[in-house]
Amino acid sequence: MEPGPCSRPAEPGHCVSGPAGAGSAFPESPLSVAGAEPGDRLGTVAAVLPAGGCGERMGVRTPKQFCRVLERPLISYTLQAMERVCWIKDIVVTVTGENMEAMRSIIQRYGHKRISLAEAGATRHRSIFNGLKALAEDQPDCKLTKPEVVIIHDAVRPFVEEDILLRVVLAAKEHGAAGAIRPLVSTVISPSADGHLDHSLDRAKHRASEMPQAFLFDVIYEAYQQSSDFDLEFGTECLQLALKYCHRKAKLVEGPPALWKVTYKQDLCAAEAMIKEKISQEICVVMNTKDEESVGHLLEEALRKELNCMKITSTVMDHIGGDIRNFIEQCYSFICVNVVSPDSQETRKLLRILEESSLPLLYPVVVVLVHCFDFTSVLLAQKMESLVWIRGLAKEVKERNILLSGLLLNYSQVCTVLTFTKCMFPYF
């Protein structure tokens, strides 16, 4: 089955690759640490995500890649993870003809970028082959660029991070093929024809093949072109095709536990728990001053001590909001500290930047406004009157999935940082 027409989106997605401290939740990559962006040395990289399966083992009518987790299709999480890696130029998703419109709707609804669609084949290998065809320069009516390296990843492995993607791509550039592996959880046994134990494998000597895998494009494309109908129909292992037809021994890269594949119905519950944990792991304190002795910095220090299981970051809202843009890729909880005045300008600027990002489309974003005043110089009633705009603004932005709360503090009184911090606990 030939792939359908493919097109390249006009605008790139957000990028989280960058210098250390830029707000990325991904581990530092070897290339970033060396002082160069990954894309500077990797060449052109694309990805193919086969998503044509029916999810038979899950036992539900909806294909598992389209099952909803926290009211969002599972495949959307995987696309988000791939899009965050800015050196992946194109992402080709192969879906069946009957699900093509549903996939287009997901791309539009959740603002996915750099995504192209190709028609899936009858089997996994045929779907991957169609995705590779969409990237090949010899295909008519295709505006995609043939990559030097292609990543193959499952649409139902949503927790892939940049570090493992980078390591398999680097290994593929050197060896022609590479794939992530994990230790076996259970011992593998071989039964006899009559259903008795024949023999078992030494678990310590074997590994489970996982995704992502990466290949020099010419290697894997040639392997698929030479593959027999039997391999395309019944095979599942891409690394084996590279070995069998192109004589490339894949480099095996140890991957993290989060590479597991959503396969059964109970896995959806596990995925939901992991996503909830992931989006509540970081708080960004936004301040309107760089003074290291300010209330904002004191709050940041207190949060680090009290919430030591979370990642606490901070930034200063400048006149164009440039710094804060580096923090909105992974963080969904913000504390905006205003010590100077009750003016809503800085708050509205932060909310505008959040609205322009894709975050509120994916999960609720929590913003806590902390206004600090000296109540000994001005009456509390006057201060409260000057902050009534928060209530109306909170109602407005809630419709866009931003949960806005306000906290008014009297900082003229002598109070400990611990007490100041505990005022924040109800929000996290």
UniProtKB/TrEMBL annotation:
InterPro entries the record matches: IspD/TarI, ISPD_C, ISPD_synthase_CS, Nucleotide-diphossugar_trans
Enzyme Commission designation: 2.7.7.40
Pathway connected to this protein: Protein modification; protein glycosylation
Gene Ontology biological-process annotations: axon guidance; isoprenoid biosynthetic process; protein O-linked glycosylation via mannose
Pfam families per UniProt: IspD, ISPD_C
Keyword vocabulary terms for this entry: Cytoplasm, Membrane, Nucleotidyltransferase, Transferase, Transmembrane, Transmembrane helix
GO cellular component: cytosol
Top enzyme category: transferase
Domain of life of the native organism: Eukaryota
Subunit organization: Homodimer.
Entry similarity comment: Belongs to the IspD/TarI cytidylyltransferase family. IspD subfamily.
Protein name: D-ribitol-5-phosphate cytidylyltransferase
Organism of this sequence: Mus spicilegus
